[in-house]
Amino acid sequence: MRLLEVRDLEVTYAGGAAAVRGVDLTVDAGQKLGLAGESGCGKSTLALALLRLLPSGTRVSGEILLDGEDVLGMRWGRVRAVRWAGASIVFQGAMHSLNAVHRVGDQIAEPILLHRTATPTGARKKAGELLEHVGLPAARASAYPHELSGGQRQRVMIAMALACDPRLIIADEPTTALDVMIQAQILRLIEQLVADQDLGLIMISHDLAVLSDTCDRLAVMYAGRVVEEGPAQSVYENAHHPYARALSAAFPRIGDPASRFAPRGLPGDPPDPAALPSGCTFHPRCSVALDGCATEDQRLRDAGPVRRAACVHVGVPGSAGPGGRTGATSVGAGAEVGLGVEAAVETEADTASAADEAVGEPASEAVGDAVGEPAGDAVGDAVGEAVGEARSSTP
Ligand SMILES: Nc1ncnc2c1ncn2[C@@H]1O[C@H](COP(=O)(O)OP(=O)(O)OP(=O)(O)O)[C@@H](O)[C@H]1O
Ligand code: SF4
Ligand SMILES: [Mg+2]
């Protein structure tokens, strides 16, 4: 059984537009999944949805199966238990997630007291052990958050996330605010913890280079959807989707002469969820868009045995590769494309007919849980190469 299986997840904030639009994900024990994408593409929303930490009034539909148990159908008592013992989040921004007026040891001990049969002394002892586990002296348990450095606070957040022995850790930008040395330490720590304890990990970051170095698989999001997914190194080095390709090209590679011109950047802004472009939502920014891209939605399709991408150029035999180059290696049959479009239509029809379930927690509880409480292939490669060639020939 999968540790986490997410099927057709849709999230719409109260009074807003859909921030997550039909995401499917799986994570197995011991597997590290990286989630990347520009600011506002829905990464944190997805993470919060997994543990029902979204504000009251937010509509969530689809399925979130944690160890086979449907998170969206759980009673609140069960959700609270699962938040710590089933899965836990290392929140974006350690300073804001720790309570400034409580000692860090007490904050780590609190979920242990709430969710484990432990005495206050036992919980404090376990808090000290957890601090040592993440490379801090147990004595630092008596420190307040402001007495710790950014890297130390992030270690405290990781210790807290481990407090009730979860099976899955969701780390939202765990190293973004840290210098590169501390960033490397924290990443190695997370990798070691996942390997030692056979945990599942979802790591969120803008930084594709960090994710490709740390994770097994990589999912790239754009406008609330996963647009490419596959083995981390292949997606980073040879993305098929033009957006994933551009994101990857934004990071210079040491030793690669082409990187002398990096970062290349991407023109335009991420779309407003309330006014998404028609067809492929990336088409206004896509340098290899075809005429149909402005009207035809593109859903994920096979781009190799273990890769998927949502682009018309993926899986079309004899089509002009991105950049207009003809003769790019074809993937799959033309029928695949037809199927992909049909599948998209079906999925959207299903989604439209499905009654959205409001799963928002009362706001005060959500805030309490999130803040007040311790927060707590070779196939298709030619398509990618064609994108690269097109880009490198672009002045
Ligand atoms: N509480 C909220 N109420 C309404 N809309 C929200 C709320 N939180 C986020 N959004 C909107 O949902 C979309 C996705 O936001 P989200 O925070 O998930 O993006 P992100 O990918 O995590 O971005 P970043 O990389 O900047 O953290 C954005 O358009 C954002 O404005
Ligand atoms: S479907 Fe069209 S617009 Fe979308 S990424 Fe592919 S080529 Fe670009
Ligand atoms: Mg975020």
Structure description:
InterPro entries: AAA+_ATPase, ABC_Ni/Peptide_Import, ABC_transporter-like_ATP-bd, ABC_transporter-like_CS, Oligopep_ABC_C, P-loop_NTPase. This is ABC transporter ATP-binding protein. GO terms for molecular function: ATP binding. It is a peripheral membrane protein. It is found in: Cell membrane. It is a single chain. With 395 residues, the protein is α/β, with parallel strands linked by helices. The protein has one domain: Rossmann fold, CATH 3.40.50.300. Helix content is 36%, strand content 17%. It contains 13 helices and 13 strands. The strands form two sheets. It has an eight-stranded mixed β-sheet with strand order 6-7-8-3-9-10-12-11, sandwiched between helices. β7 (168-172), α7 and β8 form a beta-alpha-beta unit. The longest helix has 20 residues, at 334-353. The chain is globular. The protein starts with a strand and ends with a helix. The structure holds adenosine-5'-triphosphate, iron/sulfur cluster and magnesium ion. Residues 241-242, 280, 282-283, 286, 288-290, 293, 298, 311-313 line the site of iron/sulfur cluster.
Q: Name the CATH class.
A: Alpha Beta
Order of helices and strands: EEEHEEHEHHHHEHEHEEHHEEHEHH
Task: Report the C-alpha radius of gyration, rounded.
Answer: 22 Å
- Helix count, DSSP H or I runs of 4 or more residues: 13
Looking at the structure, the CATH topology is Rossmann fold
What structural class do the secondary elements suggest?
alpha/beta
Write down the overall mean pLDDT: 79
Taking strands numbered 1, 2, ... along the chain, how are they ordered across the largest sheet? Answer: 6-7-8-3-9-10-12-11
Strand content: 15-25%
Number of structural domains: 1
Bound molecules: adenosine-5'-triphosphate, iron/sulfur cluster, magnesium ion
Low-confidence stretches: 316-395
- Under the CATH scheme, which architecture would be assigned? 3-Layer(aba) Sandwich
Biggest beta sheet summary: 8 strands, mixed
Q: Alpha-carbon distance between the termini?
A: 49 Å
Helix content: 25-40%
CATH superfamily: P-loop containing nucleotide triphosphate hydrolases
Q: What is the strand tally? A: 13
The 3D shape can be described as globular
Keywords: ATP-binding, Cell membrane, Membrane, Nucleotide-binding, Transport
GO molecular function: ATP binding
Protein name: ABC transporter ATP-binding protein
Family: Belongs to the ABC transporter superfamily.
